[in-house]
Every structure is written in C-alpha cells, then in structure tokens.
Design a protein that fits this description.
There is one protein chain. By secondary structure, the protein is an all-alpha fold. The chain has a domain of 68 residues. It contains five helices and no strands. Helix 1 runs parallel beside helix 4 and helix 2 packs across helix 5. The protein is rod-shaped and about 65 Å long. The termini are far apart.
Length: 130
C-alpha cells in the first residue's frame, strides 16, 4: 500500500504545479503595441499548440489502473480517474481550459492587429511564421 501512497503524493505534487501555473489565467496582463502584437500572438498560439500536444500525450498516461482487484483498489482508482480525467473540474479539463484561453488570447491579439491596421494577409502570415 506504500506504493499507492508514494504514487498519490507524486501525482498530487505534479498537479499542484499545474494548478499554480494555471491560477489567475484571466488576471494576467502584458502590454502590446503595433510593433509587437503579431509576435505576441504567434508566441502565445505556439505555446498553446505545444501545451495541447503535451496534454494529449500526458492524458493517455494519466489513467490509473487498480493495483489489485479488491474493493479499496478499484474504488481508489476510480476516484483518481475522476479527479484526473473525468470530472468537469478534473486536472485534464482545467489544463484544456487554460489552453483554450491561450488560443482565445491569440485570436484577440489578431483582432488587435487589425485595429492597428494590419491586413488579413499580414496577420495570417505572422501566425504561419512567414
């Protein structure tokens, strides 16, 4: 049973770090202007894409299999899977919400670039790295 305790503490610590990283997503601020708006949008979109790929790969490995066939093992595994993957406020869903927020921010920066006078072609080129 010590293995489950160590495993559980490891998972808790890992997701504690995710929670710290995603806390206050809507309150973060930075300043953009007509000179850096497209670069900022590209960086944010790139980070969102990279995080989504990491999330996809990690999600596959997050499912907990019961370490035994006893009632406690199956219930604990089910509870962990709910917290990690299935619940509306699961860690997997919270990270996905963060990724979605980054994507929305990139779109908002693209809209801001339009307000600064950039054309659709310039914005598209910036997002595609041309």
């Amino acid at each position: 049973m010590q293995i489950i305790g160590d495993f559980g503490r490891g998972i808790s610590e890992a997701f504690s770090q995710v929670e710290k990283a995603t806390r206050g997503v809507t309150s973060g601020t930075f300043t953009v202007d007509q000179h850096n708006v497209l670069a900022a949008a590209k960086i944010i979109e790139g980070q969102a894409d990279a995080l989504r790929e990491t999330w996809r790969n990690a999600r596959r490995d997050m499912r907990i299999d019961p370490p035994g066939s006893d009632d406690v093992s199956t219930r604990i595994a089910s509870a962990w899977n709910d917290r990690l993957l299935a619940a509306d406020d699961s860690y997997a869903n919270r990270v996905l919400e963060y990724i979605t927020g980054l994507k929305k921010l990139a779109v908002q920066l693209g809209d801001t670039a339009k307000a600064y006078g950039y054309t659709e072609d310039q914005i598209e080129a910036a997002f595609k790295g041309r």
